[in-house]
């Protein structure tokens, strides 16, 4: 360990207690939101000299307005920042700046330190069911993020790193033909907020990214002379932004607050979206369904509206009716997160003839996104159901290793190897997991 890392480990140790509330943060996963994030940031990522498939913009459930980078290839945006952004261009300004930290190598490294942070699918009862089923102790060990989430609140980048990220962000916006207007608007908005509150909030963008008037002035000079300054916003992207913003607000806010922000009189798409979540959260499935139906009247084959309807039906105990809308949504998008929802609905019918389809759907989902512990959990249920104990054990091994429960992963992988035919793909996979988990268990033992 280098001295710096030792220091960081020491520092982390002392921050652990203080950082408790941070551990309550969860990562929000939603197919529509992730597709939107990829599309709105793709050109910026390319401008930063990286491959869009290697960089992901993800959402953390946290009401504070903040964003940060961690894990080398993730830009994390708080749900609070999305709720406070007025348009997609403001969000792009923030992402461009954060990409500047990645390209500049300003990444806080905490290799080897794993801490559980849960993953929440943008789904209500499903989340609870997953927790009950042990599927959502879901550690971020998977993405190599862990404690970095909590750390972001306490360690800010230096002023020099901030200005270099600002200038890099401005270059990416320019190369992507995006105006810097949103970035300026957002920084000014935050600055006003800090003035109003007198002191920066502990966990705010202003705290981790000190906003000086000077910083804003420098950016204004760079942005206004850029040919992209007057580029108008992209209306399709803007509409998608309003949708995911409404969806996130509906999902994370108290239902009363959502209904104040999106009153019944508002018949727009985002308002129906937000209210569908508010009603579903308040356990009014009929009202939630009527909002989903209003969306489907406007766009009968929109895969995300179909997903919403399927989700409400599934989570209010009507899995059979959820299958059709979810099937269509999966056929249209091939999105693994929606496929896992369909797999869950098929299994939840407890109808013998649905298990084969559930297996196909879940295997396809996992082939496209291996890092979904809940998908492995569901697949394990299918194997268990048809008496394939070794494969059920292998699915558990995958899930435990993903969430950082190494000794459970080792035990499950060993159990799988007992029943699998040596030399097969599944056997070799079990062997790999056993090897990696055993090493991790031993390393933990040594560290004590
Ligand atoms: Zn910064």
What does this structure look like?
- The protein has 448 residues and is mainly alpha-helical.
- It has two domains: 3-230, 2-Layer Sandwich (Zincin-like), CATH 3.30.2010.10; 236-447, Serine Threonine Protein Phosphatase 5, Tetratricopeptide repeat (Alpha Horseshoe).
- Helix content is 65%, strand content 5%.
- It is built from 23 helices and five strands.
- A hairpin with a 3-residue loop joins strand 3 (67-70) and strand 4 (74-78).
- The longest helix is centred in the C-terminal third of the chain and has 23 residues, at 425-447.
Could you provide a short overview of the structure?
The protein has helices spanning about 5-20, 20-25, 30-45, 80-85, 90-105, 125-130, 150, 160-175, 180-195, 205-210, 215-225, 235-250, 255-260, 270-280, 285-300, 305-315, 320-335, 335-350, 355-370, 375-385, 390-400, 405-420, 425-445; strands at about 25-30, 55-60, 65-70, 75-80, 120. It is mainly α. The chain has two domains: about 5-230, Zincin-like; about 235-445, Serine Threonine Protein Phosphatase 5, Tetratricopeptide repeat (Alpha Horseshoe), CATH 1.25.40.10.
Strands, helices and their partners?
Elements: H1 3-18, H2 20-23, E1 26-29, H3 31-47, E2 56-61, E3 67-70, E4 74-78, H4 79-84, H5 88-103, E5 118-121, H6 125-132, H7 148-151, H8 159-175, H9 181-197, H10 205-208, H11 213-224, H12 235-252, H13 255-261, H14 269-281, H15 285-298, H16 303-315, H17 319-333, H18 336-348, H19 355-368, H20 373-385, H21 389-402, H22 406-419, H23 425-447
Parallel strand pairs: 1-5, 2-4
Antiparallel strand pairs: 1-2, 3-4
Bound molecules: zinc ion (ZN).
Zinc ion binds next to helix 5 and helix 8.
Domain Peptidase M48: 42-221
GO cellular component, one term: membrane
Signal peptide: 1-24
């Amino acid at each position: 360990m280098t001295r710096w890392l030792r220091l960081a480990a020491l520092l982390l140790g002392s921050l652990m207690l203080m950082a408790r509330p941070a551990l309550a943060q969860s990562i929000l996963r939603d197919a529509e939101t992730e597709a939107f994030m990829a599309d709105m940031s793709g050109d910026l990522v390319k401008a930063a000299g990286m491959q869009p498939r290697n960089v992901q913009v993800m959402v953390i459930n946290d009401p504070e307005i903040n964003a940060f980078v961690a894990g080398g290839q993730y830009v994390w945006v708080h749900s609070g920042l999305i709720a406070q952004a007025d348009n997609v261009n403001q969000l792009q300004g923030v992402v461009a700046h954060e990409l500047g930290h990645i390209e500049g190598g300003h990444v806080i490294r905490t290799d080897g330190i794993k801490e559980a942070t849960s993953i929440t699918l943008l789904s209500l009862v499903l989340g609870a069911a997953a927790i009950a089923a042990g599927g959502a102790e879901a550690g971020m060990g998977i993405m190599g993020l862990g404690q970095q989430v909590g750390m972001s609140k306490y360690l800010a980048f230096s002023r020099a790193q901030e200005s270099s990220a600002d200038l890099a962000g401005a270059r990416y916006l320019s190369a992507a033909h995006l105006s810097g207007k949103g970035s300026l608007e957002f920084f000014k908005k935050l600055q006003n907020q800090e003035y109003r509150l007198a002191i920066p909030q502990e966990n705010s963008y202003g705290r981790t990214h000190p906003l000086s008037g000077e910083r804003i002035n420098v950016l204004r000079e760079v942005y206004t002379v850029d040919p992209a300054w007057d580029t108008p916003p992209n209306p399709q992207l803007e509409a998608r932004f309003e949708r995911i913003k409404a969806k996130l607000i509906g999902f994370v806010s108290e239902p009363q607050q959502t209904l104040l922000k999106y009153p019944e009189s508002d018949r727009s798409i985002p308002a129906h979206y937000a209210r569908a979540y508010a009603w579903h959260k308040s356990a009014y499935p009929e009202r939630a369904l009527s909002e989903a139906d209003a969306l489907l009247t406007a766009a009968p084959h929109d895969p995300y509206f179909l997903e919403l309807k399927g989700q409400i039906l599934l989570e209010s105990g009507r899995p059979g009716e959820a299958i059709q809308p979810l099937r269509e949504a999966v056929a249209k998008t091939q999105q693994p997160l929606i496929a896992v929802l369909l797999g869950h609905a098929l299994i939840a019918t407890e109808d013998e003839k649905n298990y084969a389809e559930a297996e196909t759907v879940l295997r396809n989902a996992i082939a496209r996104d291996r890092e979904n512990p809940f998908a492995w959990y569901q697949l394990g249920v299918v194997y268990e159901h048809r008496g394939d104990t070794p494969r059920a054990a292998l699915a558990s091994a995958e899930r435990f290793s993903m969430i950082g429960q190494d000794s459970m992963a080792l035990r499950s992988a060993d159990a799988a190897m007992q029943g699998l035919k040596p030399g097969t793909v599944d056997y070799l996979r079990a062997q790999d997991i056993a090897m990696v988990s055993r090493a991790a268990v031993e390393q933990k033992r040594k560290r004590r």
